[in-house]
């Protein structure tokens, strides 16, 4: 697979609701595959390898604090963090057995499943449509998505923003073929954007917040009213089946760290910023546009993911139909 992939804070009451939803995921993990408890007892893993992107702020925070390691150490389980530049590459790592669990946006799992990757969706974070956008340089004459016709638009192929671009063009009365997509990973896309080699860039936070603050880039459209921008936790199916307690511990730690982050955004941004090589203000802005709190996939969320897969098939972006149901946990 060659394709290459990160909120406004809720009120305290809403945050608690999301966190409670995340905690409910813990009970859900035990339903991934029949006989999990027995399987785990027979073949419990001694390590959890987590595929992450440095732009995934919550996981970056967890890694830096060592909270998951402390939670799993008494059970004889170590943690290995494997960094990837974007979601598609992370899915490649999951498919070849380099990691056991990964965290990505909406599109990478679809491209990976179309390429035959074996994984299972084990949870998702709430929607964060403001955390991705189409931006243009501050002095660009482009004021709307409709004006992108014939223009060069940079994006990471197979990432969450791929679907945002498709939906934004559709709303503006344009076809995907009306623009010139330029497939670049975030660092290369930022360079091309700054030197004027592309007319627009479709990107997610914190790269979005960084280019806004550091170059004055203007948002012509974000995901509101267009996409959900869910983020998904995925696992190698066999690992999920054999090690439900390890995944449960991961989710417990994720929920706990999300709760702390929501209550301490400035402090969290100060910790995360040097790890991401960004200004604290940039990270804080990105954190305010993301939602956190892992929860089990509902039928509605799975249906939305299926819609994206069907759109990608219609555009010829994936080679064959994808059934999201085939990658859902067996109840």
From TrEMBL:
InterPro entries: ABC_SsuA_sub-bd, Solute-binding_3/MltF_N
Keyword Hydrolase attributed: no
One Pfam family hit: NMT1_2
Record keywords: Signal, Transport
Gene3D superfamilies: Periplasmic binding protein-like II
Domain Solute-binding protein family 3/N-terminal residue range list: 47-264
Domain of life: Bacteria
Transmembrane spans: none
GO cellular component, one term: membrane
Function: Part of a binding-protein-dependent transport system for aliphatic sulfonates. Putative binding protein.
Protein name per the record: Putative aliphatic sulfonates-binding protein
């Amino acid at each position: 697979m060659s394709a290459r992939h990160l909120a406004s804070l809720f009120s305290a009451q809403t945050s608690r609701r999301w966190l409670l939803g995340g905690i409910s995921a813990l009970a859900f993990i035990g339903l991934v595959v029949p006989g999990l408890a027995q399987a785990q007892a027979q073949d419990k893993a001694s390590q959890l390898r987590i595929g992450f992107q440095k732009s995934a702020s919550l996981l970056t925070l967890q890694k830096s604090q060592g909270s998951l390691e402390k939670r799993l150490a008494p059970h004889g389980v170590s943690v290995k963090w494997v960094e990837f530049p974007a979601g598609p590459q992370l899915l490649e790592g999951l498919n070849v057995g380099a990691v056991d669990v990964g965290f990505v946006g909406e599109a990478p799992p679809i491209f990976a499943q179309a390429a035959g990757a074996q994984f299972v969706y084990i949870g998702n974070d709430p929607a964060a449509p403001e955390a991705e956008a189409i931006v243009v340089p501050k002095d660009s004459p482009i004021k709307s998505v409709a004006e992108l016709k014939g223009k060069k638009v940079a994006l990471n192929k197979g990432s969450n923003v791929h679907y945002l671009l498709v939906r934004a063009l559709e709303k503006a009365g344009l076809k995907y073929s009306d623009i010139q997509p330029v497939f670049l990973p975030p660092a290369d896309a930022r360079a091309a954007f700054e030197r004027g080699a592309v007319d627009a860039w479709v990107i997610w936070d914190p790269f979005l917040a960084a280019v806004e603050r550091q170059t004055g880039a203007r948002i012509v459209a974000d995901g509101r009213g267009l996409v959900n921008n869910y983020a998904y936790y995925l696992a190698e199916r066999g690992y999920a089946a054999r090690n439900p307690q390890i995944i449960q511990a991961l989710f417990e730690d994720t929920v706990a760290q999300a709760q702390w982050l929501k209550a301490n955004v400035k402090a969290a941004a100060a910790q995360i910023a040097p790890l991401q090589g960004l200004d604290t203000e940039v990270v804080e802005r990105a954190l305010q546009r993301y939602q956190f709190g892992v929860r089990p996939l509902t039928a509605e969320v799975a249906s939305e993911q299926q819609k994206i897969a069907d759109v990608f098939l219609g555009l010829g972006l994936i080679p064959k139909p994808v059934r999201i149901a085939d990658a859902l946990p067996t109840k």
